[in-house]
Amino acid sequence: MSLFEAKVKSVLSGDTVILHNINNPKAERTLSLAFVSAPRLKREGDEQYAFESRDFLRRLLVGKVVQFRVLYKIPTGANREYGIISLPNKTQLPDVAVAEGWLKLRDDAGRKDDSEEATSTLEKLQALEARAKADSKGIWQESGARINSTSELSDPKKFVEEHKGKAIDAIVEKVLSGDRLIVRLLLSPTEHVQTMVLMAGIRAPSTKRTNPSDGKEQPAEAFGEEAQQFVETRLLQRNIVVNVLGVSPNGQLVANIKHPVNGSIAPYLLQSGLARCTDHHTTLLGQEMGALRQAEKSAKDGRKGVFQGHVAAKSGAGELEAVVSRVQSADTIFIRDKSGVEKRINLSSVRQPKPSDPKQSPWGAEAKEFLRKKLIGKHVKYHVDGKRAATEGYEERQMATIKLQDKNIGLLLVENGMASVIRHRQEDTDRSPIYDDLLLAEQTAQQEQKGLWSPKAPSAKQFVDYSESLEKAKRQLALLSRQRKVPAIVDFVKSGSRFTVLVPRENAKLTFVLSGIRAPRSARNPTDKGEPFGQEAHDFANKRCQQRDVEIDVEDCDKMGGFIGTLYINRENFAKALLEEGFASVHGYSAEKSGNANELFAAEQKAKDARKGLWQDYDPSQDADESTAGAESNGQNGDAAAAAERRKDYRDVVITHVDEAGKLKLQQVGTGTSALTELMNAFRNFHLNPSNNAGLPNPPKAGEFVAARFTADDEWYRARIRRNDREAKKAEVVYIDYGNSETIPWSRLRPLSQPQFSPQSKLKAQALDAQLSFVQLPTNPEYLADSINFIAQETADRQLVANVDQVDKDGTLWVTLFDPKESKTGDQSVNAEVVSEGLAMVPKKLRAWERGAGEILEALKKREAVAKEERRGMWEYGDLTEDD
């Protein structure tokens, strides 16, 4: 009989093996041992000693090259071949298995082959069997324990809880694919479980299989059969160690499969390009996932197996440096590079709390603030990991890893529960290089119930907008003006000198205006035209202040509810920084009032000397007045004071309004007055026409010119929107020809688009800003109200003569008002009457041009002394300014 050579692939039972061609593993044949039989392994329950019988043969043969001869065949059924197997060490089967008592002779063994060789073999086997029986070996034992073998896990999760962290001895019964095995878990000498196990950390291509739903055969994926064969040749029916880690969504065990000598097979599969890493198991494997990623990378670099068509991502420019200029959300920031270019980047593999998730959305503001505190204004290093293509509703996004002092910011967010980790698709190329660390950090944050994983929502911080109305602003002013260096956050930069700030400890939101300076106006929209250097000032303020922690000193509030004061960033007065760059000019009166005049004038002079910004064409010879004022504000007097003379500029005027701060609105009587009368008659007739009664087509915007119907007389006047309340559908308007204001419904507004009524092209606004010269109104609200009422009564319905003593850079007129019928001398004025009534005082700090009017000041001081003596108005309780 012919002698063949083959390799043992597996052992089906104690008497049957699968052999394959040494050079062609796919060429297989089944061989049963001649003349003997073994206990059967059955799904419904093994026969006694079936496993031990099979295991004896398995340990002896699997993976070894053997020689075999076929003695006979039984042509019925499977056409099975029976023969003898010889090992290289001359061990022969079935002899050794019979001798150990794991096989018994068939009852019909003598009838299978009647040749002389067969008879001799049979006699030898009979003798070996008799000896085994006599020695009670193997199946001939009188009292052997029965192995309980099951093929189902009733509760996989409970099984994992009980055995996690333990090394379980096992045998691979079948290789379904490169990452799926049927494994016999040897829980104890008498307790076995056969179940499917998924290899942790990898996914191998699938093999050919039949779909159970429709019975159709599904072809194998590329390299699926190669992956299966790779595992079969190394693990099939080998002893392994199983470390269970978790359960898949389908209830299958996920485990580390380790060869007793060579360790885990997963890295070898990956290195050969026969599997890919799977992110789903990262949290189960922990740091071990890093070794698998490296193995996968080597296959990608070598373009092996499933990575044959792999194209390596283009390496970027390495780590770049930038400054964080703005935080848009917990996963999106704006950075500014060394050249000043700003761009938006997203954190790789990290997602802010989902606005659409009711449990996560309350954490959005908290997470954004967490990131702002860490990053705003800081120098960071970043590396672009990839780009996410534009989709509907989203532009193309750059995904990057950002580090602050070598700390990964994405990881920091996830560790603190301020962000979640994106679940990438296999083909995504924009994932973070520390993706596994992110997944582990997320799992830890979930377990510790940090941040958005907490069962409790964060306490919602509601900021009250105190600049919404003048009344609210005045209420808050009393509180803030008593405090110094109040911590705040710049939430938005409106212009070079106007900001929206948040004061967390007061839950306050304020419009904040820098005192002592005037910055040029920037364009409000693409069609608007700003003032020279307005945009530069706006950009400078954005760069230095946007989202920064600052401190504010509140001094006063304006008529629109804005809070006026000093803003400090990094302990430096920001108004000074603007002035030094030439992006603002000093407003003399408010600078002196703020107490920062010396500092501000010095900063302005520095910009003038350097010809910066607004002062690029500065001519010192044309700046005598300003330099004199600047010198005096620094404590110089004498001849310099005398040089600043009071103007003589008499104009006929009508006072149209006195606002809450005592500031005046006046109209000059003359050609403008007659033009206004003519315009108002035409304006009134226009709006009486029913064809012109259409309301505004869109909600009004702040700064927009409109026609407004005054509540007191139901007439239409030209006006400008000061503030808009979209919820109440009301707007605060200023009547530009008279200066008064009120809040009215949108229904009382109409467009002012007619060129014949335009304040820009036809007739400019007739109400001019003005203030009384040589007097300072009370700061006490009650006395101030009395003062305003007195001025209003004295000027109501009277044509007066105003001497314009000085004109500020912002156009404000400083005036002394005379009644031509009553004023006989220069010191008989409305200004003087206010002082006489004790409703104003002569300022202690005089402007340069005021110092030059010695006679008027002397007369006013005499009136003030009389008012004090008679305890009039603000002096009713004595002179409270004596301690100043």
Q: Would you mind describing this structure in some detail?
A:
The chain has 884 residues and is α+β, with helices and mostly antiparallel strands. The chain has 6 domains: 4-140, OB fold (Dihydrolipoamide Acetyltransferase, E2P) (Beta Barrel); 148-210 and 219-307, OB fold (Dihydrolipoamide Acetyltransferase, E2P) (Beta Barrel); 320-453, Beta Barrel (OB fold (Dihydrolipoamide Acetyltransferase, E2P)); 464-643, OB fold (Dihydrolipoamide Acetyltransferase, E2P); 651-757, Roll (SH3 type barrels), CATH 2.30.30; 773-875, OB fold (Dihydrolipoamide Acetyltransferase, E2P) (Beta Barrel), CATH 2.40.50. Helix content is 27%, strand content 29%. It is built from 23 helices and 46 strands. The strands form 11 sheets. Strands 1-2-3-6-5 form a 5-stranded mixed barrel. A 5-stranded mixed beta barrel has the order 10-11-12-17-16. Strand 2 (16-20) and strand 3 (28-33) form a beta hairpin. The termini are far apart.
Write the layout of secondary structure elements.
Elements: E1 4-13, E2 16-20, E3 28-33, E4 36-37, H1 50-61, E5 65-74, E6 80-86, E7 92-93, H2 95-99, E8 104-105, H3 116-134, E9 148-150, H4 156-163, E10 168-177, E11 180-188, E12 191-199, E13 202-203, E14 209-210, E15 217-218, H5 224-235, E16 239-247, E17 253-259, E18 263-264, H6 266-271, E19 276-277, H7 282-285, H8 289-302, E20 320-329, E21 332-336, E22 342-347, E23 350-351, H9 364-375, E24 379-388, E25 397-404, E26 407-408, H10 409-415, E27 420-421, H11 435-447, E28 464-465, H12 470-480, E29 486-493, E30 498-503, E31 508-514, E32 517-518, H13 534-545, E33 549-557, E34 563-569, E35 572-573, H14 574-580, E36 585-586, H15 588-594, H16 597-609, H17 624-633, H18 639-643, E37 650-658, E38 664-668, H19 671-688, E39 705-709, E40 716-725, E41 730-735, E42 741-745, E43 749-751, E44 768-772, H20 781-795, E45 799-807, E46 813-818, H21 830-836, H22 848-851, H23 854-869
Parallel strand pairs: 3-6, 9-12, 12-17, 22-25, 28-31, 31-34, 44-46
Antiparallel strand pairs: 1-2, 1-5, 2-3, 4-8, 5-6, 6-7, 10-11, 10-16, 11-12, 13-19, 14-15, 16-17, 17-18, 20-21, 20-24, 21-22, 23-27, 24-25, 25-26, 29-30, 29-33, 30-31, 32-36, 33-34, 34-35, 37-38, 37-45, 38-44, 39-40, 39-43, 40-41, 41-42, 45-46
Helix pairs in contact: 10-11, 14-16
InterPro entries: Silence_cplx_Nase-comp_TudorSN, SNase_OB-fold_sf, Staphylococal_nuclease_OB-fold, Tudor
Keywords: Cytoplasm, Phosphoprotein, Repeat
Pfam families: SNase, TUDOR
